[in-house]
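User: Please fill in residues for this 366-position structure.
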C-alpha cells in the first residue's frame, strides 16, 4: 500500500467555521457589516496590541491601499526585498511609485539593513520589509535607518501572524502592517487581508479607499476601490483567530523536531530576540535542490515548496525597475531554499517520515 501523501500546506476548516458561515448566511447580512467590524477589533486586540485594523478583500489590496493611504505615489521610491512574492513590489508599482530592490540577510531571508542603507536615495520615501516565512525582519536597525533619513516604514506581515521582535508584535513597528488571510496562511478568512494602522488618519484613508472613496453612502471623498471584506469571510476569520495561537505552538514544536533531526541541510535560524511563527519551514541545500524536491515527492510522498525561485528583480513584470542589479544573497537563496511541511495537521509519524525522506535524499546526492 502506498503511503499517504504529506502536503506542503493544509488549510484547516472545521465545523466551527462552517457554523459561523451558516450563522451569517441566516442573518441575511452577507456584505461588509457587523461581522467585519468585530473581526477588525478582535484581530487588533489579539495580534497587534490593540492597533486599529481595517479588513480588506486580499493581502495585496491591503498593501496597495496602505501605501496609498500613507501618500505613496509617482516620484517616490520604496525599498523592498526581491526575495519574496511579487505582491510586495507590485503594490508599490500600482501606486505609480518605484520599487527599489535590496538584498537579504542570509540567515533570516529578510531585508538586510546594510543593503537598505546602500539603496537610499533622495527620492526614497519608505522602506517596506517582509517578515518572510514568519521570521521578523530586523526592525530595530530598519527603524534606525528610517529615522536617520526621515523615511516611513511599512510592514509586509503577510506570513507572520503572531511573530514578534523584542517582545513587540509585527504589525506594530510601521505606519501600517499588512497581514494576509489567504487559505494557506497561518490563519485564513477564506481570502482577505488586514491592515494594522498606527493612526486614525491612516485607518480612515484605508477605509475610504476600500469602499469607493466613501465613509458615508454616496458622499464620495476620493477615488477609491471596491476592496471590502464580506461578513462571510470575516466570520471564518473570527473563528480562526481563536485557534491561531495553538496552531502556532504546533508549528513551533514541529520546527523544533525538524531542527533536531535533519542532517546535511541548513535549518532555519532564529534571531535571539525573535519569535518565529513558521509560516514556512525553509531549509537550504548547497546543491541539487530540484533533484531533492522531486525525490521527496516521487519517492517519499512528501510535498515541499520552493519560495521563491525567480527573484522579483528578474521577473518580466518587474525587471525594468532593476536593470543590471546584483543581489548575491537573494540569488543564492533562490537557488538553495526548500520549504518543508510544518503545518499543524502533521502527526509524529509524518514528521518522522519527513526527516527520514530528507536525510536519505540529501545523503544520496552527496
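Assistant: Residues filled in for all 366 positions:
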Amino acid at each position: 500500500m502506498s503511503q499517504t501523501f504529506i502536503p506542503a500546506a493544509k488549510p484547516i476548516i472545521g465545523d466551527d467555521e462552517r457554523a459561523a458561515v451558516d450563522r451569517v448566511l441566516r442573518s441575511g447580512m452577507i456584505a461588509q457589516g457587523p461581522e467585519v467590524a468585530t473581526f477588525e477589533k478582535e484581530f487588533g486586540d489579539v495580534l497587534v496590541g490593540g492597533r486599529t485594523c481595517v479588513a480588506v478583500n486580499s493581502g495585496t489590496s491591503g498593501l496597495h491601499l496602505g501605501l496609498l493611504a500613507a501618500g505613496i505615489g509617482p516620484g517616490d521610491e520604496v525599498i523592498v526585498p526581491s526575495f519574496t512574492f511579487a505582491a510586495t513590489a507590485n503594490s508599490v508599482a500600482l501606486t505609480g511609485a518605484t520599487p527599489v530592490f535590496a538584498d537579504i540577510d542570509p540567515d533570516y531571508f529578510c531585508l538586510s539593513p546594510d543593503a537598505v542603507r546602500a539603496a537610499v536615495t533622495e527620492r526614497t520615501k519608505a522602506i517596506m520589509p517582509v517578515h518572510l516565512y514568519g521570521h521578523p525582519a530586523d526592525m530595530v536597525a530598519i527603524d534606525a535607518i528610517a529615522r536617520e533619513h526621515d523615511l516611513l516604514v511599512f510592514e509586509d506581515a503577510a506570513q507572520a501572524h503572531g511573530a514578534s521582535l523584542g517582545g513587540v508584535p509585527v504589525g506594530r513597528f510601521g505606519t501600517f502592517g499588512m497581514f494576509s488571510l489567504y487559505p494557506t496562511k497561518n490563519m485564513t478568512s477564506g481570502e482577505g487581508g488586514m491592515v494594522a494602522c498606527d493612526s486614525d488618519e491612516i485607518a480612515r484613508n484605508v477605509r475610504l479607499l476600500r469602499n469607493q472613496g466613501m465613509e458615508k453612502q454616496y458622499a464620495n471623498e476620493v477615488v477609491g476601490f471596491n476592496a471590502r471584506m464580506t461578513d462571510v469571510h470575516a466570520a471564518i476569520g473570527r473563528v480562526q483567530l481563536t485557534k491561531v495561537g495553538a496552531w502556532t505552538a504546533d508549528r513551533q514544536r514541529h520546527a523544533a523536531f525538524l531542527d533536531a533531526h535533519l542532517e546535511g541541510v541548513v535549518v532555519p535560524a532564529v534571531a535571539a530576540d525573535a519569535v518565529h511563527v513558521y509560516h514556512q519551514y525553509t531549509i537550504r541545500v548547497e546543491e541539487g535542490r530540484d533533484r531533492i524536491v522531486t525525490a521527496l515527492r516521487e519517492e517519499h510522498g512528501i510535498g515541499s515548496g520552493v519560495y521563491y525561485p525567480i527573484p522579483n528583480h528578474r521577473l518580466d513584470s518587474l525587471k525594468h525597475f532593476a536593470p543590471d542589479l546584483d543581489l548575491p544573497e537573494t540569488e543564492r537563496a533562490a537557488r538553495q531554499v526548500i520549504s518543508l511541511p510544518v503545518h499543524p495537521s502533521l502527526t509524529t509519524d509524518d514528521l518522522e517520515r519527513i526527516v527520514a525522506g530528507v536525510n536519505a535524499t540529501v545523503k544520496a546526492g552527496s
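For context: The chain is about 40% helix and 15% strand.
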